[in-house]
Amino acid sequence: MMIAVDRHEAKRRLSQLVKAIEEEGVVVILHRNGQPVAEIRPHVSSTLRPIRHLVPDPRLRAILAPGYDPAEPASEEEWPEECR
Fold first, then answer.
1. Measured between alpha carbons, how far is 29 from 11 in angstroms, rounded to an integer?
2. Which residues sit opposite 27 in a β-bridge?
3. Model pTM?
4. How many Å apart are CA 19 and CA 82, to the nearest integer?
5. What average pLDDT is seen over the chain?
6. What is the DSSP track for the chain?
7. How far apart are CA 54 and CA 25, in angstroms?
């Protein structure tokens, strides 16, 4: 359900509008000079969304060759031909 009010009426009825938003889930549209300018809707608590704790899969771990140093720059032969 939606309620459309101008901002002066919203100031007078703010307590009633907040109560309607809390209890009934109403969306309030604020108007200025007959044009909608803002929307007040119920807050969706973040506790409703599951919290994902991502843990890396040990099976996907990269295994580097012995003696490989990733910080060492690549030699000319290691670069692809089109990038030289």
1. 13
2. 2
3. 0.52
4. 67
5. 87
6. -EEEEEHHHHHHTHHHHHHHHHHH--EEEEEETTEEEEEE-PPPPGGGSPPP-----GGG---PPTT--TTSPPPGGGS-GGG-
7. 33
Structural domains of the chain, ranges and CATH numbers in brackets? 2-43 (3.40.1620)
Please say whether the dihedral angle defined by the alpha carbons of residues 38, 40, 41 and 47, taken in this order, is positive or negative.
Answer: positive
28 touches 39 (CB < 8 A): yes
- pLDDT of res. 47: 64
Q: What is the pLDDT of residues 37-66, one digit of tens each?
A: 999 999 877 666 677 788 889 899 888 888
Give the amino acid at 15. Answer: S
